[in-house]
# Entry
Amino acid sequence: MLYDDSNKLIFLPQKETKIFEMFNRYSKVYKILRQAHDEII
# Structure
């Protein structure tokens, strides 16, 4: 995976792009859950 300085994708095959999008969504959800969990504790 290649990135430029603004953290945008320069090149990514179609299949990997979908995996990357899924990973992005998962990591966002994970961060939200992490925050909520920390606030509860």
